[in-house]
Amino acid sequence: MLGHRLPSGRGATEQPNAAGDAETPLTATFWLLVVATGVAAGLLGVLMMWLLNGVIRLAYGAHRGSFVHVVQDDSAVRRLVVLVIAGAVAGVCWFWLRRITAGERSDLDDQLWTGDGSLSFRRSLGTSVLSEFVVGAGASLGREAAPKLMGGAVASWLATWRGLTPPQRRLLVACGAGAGMGAVYNVPLGGALITAELLYGSLTLPVILPALACSWIATAVSWIYLPNTATYNDIPSYRLRTTLVVFAVVVGPLIGLLSVGYIRLIGWVSHYRATGRYLLLAPLLAFGILGTIALAYPQVLGNGQDLAHAAFVSRGRETFQFVLVLLMLKPLVTAMCLGSGVTGGLFTPTLSTGAVLGVLLGKLWVLAWPGSPVGAFAIVASAAMIGAAMQTPLAALALIIELTRTTDALVVPMIAATVLATIVARYLDGYSIYSSRLPAAGAVERKEGADEPGGERL
Hints:
Blueprint: H1 28-60, H2 67-73, H3 76-100, H4 108-114, H5 121-137, H6 145-162, H7 166-185, H8 188-200, H9 205-222, H10 242-271, H11 282-294, H12 305-312, H13 320-339, H14 347-368, H15 374-390, H16 393-404, H17 411-428
């Protein structure tokens, strides 16, 4: 705004990260829409979490405590019945939603990366409601998909209303989606980095500023209903030890290798997932199988938050067999739920898979080099798994620190494991759990209302 250069005569925007907004000007109108998007994303996040909690109360009664404790308090038969009913209802509802809204877009990642960011609000709302419905019933999918999609959808509507340019709309939609995730997990920094690093693909100042503003506004608004505490409470303040740093260097590449297999599994089931009239039966079958598995292992139900929490506080008393079975089951049932044609998130299922892997590797590690609790290894492994699977190392580290609020002392081994795992995943394969779910190039939605292979990717 000042009319004169400094005595050096150099340009004001020669710092690389401070430039880059020529195509996406941050006008006064854009900033007003950032504020409006933040408020709306926070309120919609509250609505989605209220709906999720209502489904849990309806399905399993009024209980206190974690989701796993809630479902364990009920009979195994009731868990199976709830899941079968949820599968039957969800299949019919998704079939008709996709039929009625044929041609409308709610594929957030695809629209941001290859489109202009336009999203159908009514299809996004229907998808989000159904997503929280199946997660509340116990589907092995993430709860963040709905608020993430709704934050993007309301941003798309606001951008169209005010006539923003396509680049401005893309940035605003990315901000809204990251803010929605940040709000429901109380991770404003993580939400902003999801916007910049994952959804928009730039860490320049013109991207980071609106991303941070939108995320903190949404998070603050969400406190009218959601707690302003860490998602994972009571995590010990683990001490940094040499054994953890060496562990991170040794197992980081292994976690990257395993994440590639996980990503490929997600990509395969996303491409071949049930569509069209198969939707009427596939969720019923998948949820019935999930309920049968949960008769013996109820820990696989839900998004995996309780599974990750148990891993983070683990002292290594679990048997190898039990941990190994959970490590195999969690990604498989998550893939099965996706393959049935329903929609949900992958963040927490991925995090919990990494945490359980950390428990297994940590139990083996302390046999040779004791000195750290197994829970510390779980935290390091979960950060590496998220970073590699999402191809977002910065967001992964910020999310783990914000989700726990007590793990900053482990930042060096977390960085080491995350960097090495992400490098291996990037150069061995290159896909992420989000890019692997993109539809086939040129796929067209069929007239009967079935999605192109993969449907909504959240």
